[in-house]
Amino acid sequence: MHCMMPRNRSNSLSDDGQAVHESGDVLIRVAASIADLMQVVAIRAAVYLAEQTCPYEEEFDGNDFCALHLIAAMRGEPAGCMRIRFFADFAKLERLAIRHEFRRSLLAFEIVRAGIRLARLKGYSRIYGHAQDRLVPFWSRFGARPMKPRRRLAFSDYSYTEMLLEAEPHPEALSLASDPYVLIRPEGLWHTPGPLEASAVRPVSSPNRKARAA
Fold it and tell me: Which domains are delineated in the chain?
């Protein structure tokens, strides 16, 4: 829950095949291309490298290619992002970043709520993070609580508090009982048919195999 936030609606899955959350001027989606990751890097560089003077190797720590990233756009402009990593029995929210010019909005709240709901849809009911000490009240708004006993945690020149949110299991959480086509849909877009479902109308034998044989 490492984040840069301002100091001072409910989620819904969109049917447009792109958003994991859409409300008014805000659209939140899962990064799904190199261009999307460039937006994530640009936002985090502006917030952490430029504003917090965080060293590059500490901000871009080697975990970006084993994580899911949410991008939030406001009126079409990339405005915020958050990283989520998934472990055996918990999900970890981290690297929440909101561009300076959008911090008077409720964008941070919408990204966090979207991330929590997405983690719950993936079957997680324990959501963990590291909150800068001054931001413990912010994360408490979502039901997260400081973990006890408190362990000393400091990195990149800030002191952090371990936070844990224990949520109710999502009634539509993905599981081995889920439709197999749902499980192969693009990440976060389990509510809408994916490209592999369209391929299911073709015969089972591969047309490429026949082409090579000819």
Answer: 3-213 (3.40.630.30)
